[in-house]
Amino acid sequence: MNIASRFDLVLERIARAAARANRDPAAITLVAVTKTHPPEVIAEAIAAGARDLGENRVQEAALKIPPLAAAYPDARWHLIGHLQRNKAKTAIELFDMIHSIDSLRLAETLNRLLQERAAGRLPVLLQVNVSGEASKEGFDLPGGIANRAGLEALLPEVERILALPCLEVRGLMTIAPIVADPEQARPVFRALRELRDELARRFPRAAWAELSMGMTDDFEAAIAEGATIVRVGRAIFGERAG
Ligand SMILES: *Cc1c(COP(=O)(O)O)cnc(C)c1O
Fold this sequence. Notes:
The chain has about 240 residues and is an alpha/beta fold. The protein has helices at about 5-20, 40-45, 60-70, 90-95, 105-115, 150-160, 185-200, 220-225, 235; strands at about 30-35, 50-55, 75-80, 95-100, 120-130, 140, 165-175, 210, 230. The model has no long low-confidence stretch (mean pLDDT about 95). Bound molecules: pyridoxal-5'-phosphate. The site of pyridoxal-5'-phosphate has 12 residues, from strand 9.
């Protein structure tokens, strides 16, 4: 199957998962995750209709995005991987949205760089590790909002990030653990949604609309739990070599 057929198939699966959850499929954005793939492969996905594209490494993205952004000015680029502060300056030049805000210090660095550039507000998501897996990046909140001590520690950090004038917090992002059956990932997705609802209640001035969750192996389960952005690589592009 070529990329266009695979892309269409993923859109169909999103529509079916949305229908099962009584949700509008138009409320779910598919981010095609292009990491490891060369520009000509990414161009095929754009020709197939992909407009939201995700990369996880700034260095790789810095080589690939500028020519593609020039050729396809309506494509939107999402940073979905951990961002080191020394790459923050490059990141704000490349990306339209950053899903991986995982510390107050990173948020403050981005805000300062954006202020210097006078480039307006950058849409961001706060990445939260609600599963408790040690290897995952993100603010730690194992157990979700049931973890009252963890929540009380997180709230002041969120409050300070919301006060940064050049960041526009739009919601949360998470990566679920790898499990045998995607249904097993649902509690993690549900925990992120419940945290979002709690933050929206406590900080109603920010827009908490977005939940970036779900990948090739589990995006339908994520949609059942309220995902508004799914990040899909292998189902569109096939297995990655590296
Ligand atoms: C690679 C990656 C994805 C896509 O993973 P697939 O399993 O290829 O769909 C999604 N999110 C993040 C953060 C990634 O690094």
